[in-house]
Here is the input.
Amino acid sequence: MDIETIGVRDLKNNATRIVRAVREAHAEYVVTVHGEPAAVIRPFGPDGRGTPAIRGHRAVPRPDGCDRRGGRQRLGIAQLRRRAGGSAEARLMAVVDASVMAAVVNGADPHHDVARAWHARVVREGRPLYAPWILVAEVAAAIGRGQGDASLAHRVAKSMTEGGVIRFSPIDAALAARAWAIAADRRLRGCDAVYVALAAELGEMLVTLDAQQLARAAGEVEVQRPGKPTG
Here is the structure.
């Protein structure tokens, strides 16, 4: 059984679902903080020491990146995923910003075809996308103000929040603090810095069409345009 890698924020936002998967499906997770392995979640065994040796379920070895004395090597997220049971390409995640999602839904956007094709590939391959909740308001504003179509803006916002493709994260005090530091240090707009901060917290790449994001966020996180391969 492959060990899935999840960020600590994903664990916080989806704790009930994850515990249910561990209990009912014997799923196992490596939890990362800033892209590095920090903990392992596995089914609790009858001996009180972890995975039960029942139902043909094997015990999970010590996660790569930790030696026998508990020391930790610094591994990148892609390397961890390869060692945890899958290629980086197969398990890649990304934070997506409003410039991309607005282009996906706006047929008049010059980047529409590229953004739409990338988004369709992500959905087809079942890759998770992450975004702060501010994404919904930004995309709705882009449609409502840019196209003058309030009805379409409402439909798009509802589709994004209910579609299950994007996993939304709240902007809590910790994320806000990271965002304002990035905004100041990288000379980014406030909302743009929130996307960069989330990508940094999750240890994932940021996918954007915004020229300023591409130029200034690169020193903080990996940044790509949606037209490029994501693995």
